[in-house]
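RECORD TYPE: inverse folding
INPUT: structure tokens
STRUCTURE:
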């Protein structure tokens, strides 16, 4: 018997053609799917049973779906197993607050009800439908999918998921996000043996991986800066959460290819006349989104002004560890931060309690962080920790890295980039980077103290060759995102056949 559960079905990711291709190579009794977009629901309904993501996000189910007359009640075994993850799941549910398309309530009662409804329904789904395999198109980080993930772990149901690799635009498959570093550690060790007599130039890298390594090894801040961090990241993030509120941008979107083709000349003017009715049709929605989003933009500006007021530039000659804050909410900190560590003050306190008094921690906010999830009080609480200094946004991340005693984060990119400057990295979360040459993975106060003692003693060293081999290991275990059409069906087939 094979009952397959696909989480995150949508045309942009795991589409109908991919699902059909996957099913052509395996025998299944039934397929269950969580479909992300309501407008796409009808694409998949003949392939199996579909549930709409929006309903599950809100914990809304029909009486027929619940079937309370024949349900499996929740018992201590489920609650005991799930209890360590409740905080991170509730925080994941919060990601849908303040979104124009969802507008989920921010009350404790709402999140508790949503969690309990989803725990009940999803536990019943796995049990009563006898789900045998679960495939996630992305690492679970939206609350409901994290519930599925942990229930599967409890029930020994094989799972597989995809997530972003160390290398931009490349993903890798994993079955346990808390052990994601084991596979790359093994691959890294194999490559060290294979290339033990080779020079760094004799190690060949492929495709975009070669270009990314050249950027990292250049130590040029302009080249090293990730593409996704260029431009006004704050405004892009705001638009992603609250919707497009700029009528000019909406107009450009309507014009589409004409705008790209004709620019702003007379040809553009002629091509645009026929689309004026479409513009007038979207004006009311754009205005409603602007009215909804405006208070949140004002709050973000207020928080940023406070941050600018209390932050400072690095002090000459001061010994420090650079702590790079994550953008939140995102999977890189929840669930990969690990349970309550999604609150970045928790690892920050551990780090500060591990340090001698003459070493400070330079904390820099993420440039895309909105007031949502990170308000004035959050920064005030950080400043109460004696060794913390908030660093001004204009201060270069790469200057902070290269002059640091060490770099710390949950799973941040800075902890990989720092190693090219021969600066050790302290990672509190679960990441591909944990097995990298100059990295120390810590979760406790004692582990952090030991890592700092090892750093002081220079216990770990690395070379450009090792960093290149680690990059190659990450490449070998990953695939380019443009290859999903072939990779996803193959992964689903592998999940069913081998697990």
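DESIGNED SEQUENCE:
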């Amino acid at each position: 018997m094979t009952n397959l559960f696909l989480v995150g079905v949508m045309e942009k990711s795991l589409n109908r053609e991919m699902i059909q291709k996957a099913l052509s190579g395996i025998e299944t009794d039934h397929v269950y799917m969580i479909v992300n977009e309501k407008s796409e629901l009808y694409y998949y309904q003949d392939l199996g049973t579909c549930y709409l993501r929006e309903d599950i996000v809100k914990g809304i189910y029909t009486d027929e779906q619940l079937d309370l007359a024949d349900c499996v009640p929740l018992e201590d075994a489920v609650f005991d197993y799930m209890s360590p993850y409740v905080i991170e799941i509730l925080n994941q549910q919060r990601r849908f607050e303040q979104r124009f398309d969802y507008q989920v309530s921010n009350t404790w009662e709402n999140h508790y009800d949503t969690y309990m409804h989803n725990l009940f329904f999803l536990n019943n789904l796995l049990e009563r439908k006898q789900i045998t395999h679960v495939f996630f198109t992305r690492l679970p980080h939206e609350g409901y999918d994290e519930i599925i993930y942990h229930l599967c772990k409890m029930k020994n149901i094989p799972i597989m998921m995809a997530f972003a690799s160390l290398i931009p635009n490349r993903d890798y498959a994993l079955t346990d996000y808390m052990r994601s570093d084991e596979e790359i550690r093994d691959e890294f060790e194999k490559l060290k043996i294979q290339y033990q007599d080779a020079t760094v130039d004799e190690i060949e890298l492929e495709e975009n991986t070669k270009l990314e390594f050249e950027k990292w090894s250049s130590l040029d801040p302009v080249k090293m800066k990730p593409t996704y961090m260029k431009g006004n990241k704050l405004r892009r993030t705001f638009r992603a959460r609250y919707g497009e509120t700029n009528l000019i941008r909406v107009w450009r979107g309507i014009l589409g290819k004409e705008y790209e083709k004709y620019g702003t000349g007379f040809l553009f003017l002629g091509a645009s006349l026929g689309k004026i009715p479409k513009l007038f049709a979207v004006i009311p929605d754009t205005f409603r989104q602007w009215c909804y989003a405006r208070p949140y933009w004002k709050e973000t500006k207020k928080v940023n002004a406070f941050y600018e007021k209390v932050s400072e530039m690095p002090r000459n000659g001061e010994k420090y560890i650079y702590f790079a804050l994550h953008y939140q909410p995102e999977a890189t900190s929840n669930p990969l931060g690990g349970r309550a560590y999604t609150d970045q003050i928790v690892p920050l306190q551990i780090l500060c309690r591990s340090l001698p008094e003459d070493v400070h921690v330079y904390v820099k906010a993420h440039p895309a962080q909105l007031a949502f999830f990170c308000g004035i009080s959050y920064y005030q609480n950080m400043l109460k920790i004696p060794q913390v200094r908030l660093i001004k946004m204009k201060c270069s991340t790469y200057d902070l890295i290269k002059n640091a005693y060490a770099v710390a984060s949950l799973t941040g990119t800075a902890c990989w980039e720092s190693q090219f400057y021969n600066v050790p990295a302290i990672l509190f979360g679960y990441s591909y980077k944990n097995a990298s040459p100059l990295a120390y993975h810590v979760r406790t106060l004692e582990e952090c103290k030991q890592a700092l003692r090892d750093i002081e003693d220079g216990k770990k060293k690395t070379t450009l060759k090792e960093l290149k081999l680690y990059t190659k290991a990450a490449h070998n275990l990953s695939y380019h995102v443009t290859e999903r059409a072939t990779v996803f069906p193959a992964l689903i087939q592998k999940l069913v056949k081998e697990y």
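NOTES: DSSP finds 23 helices and 13 strands in the chain.
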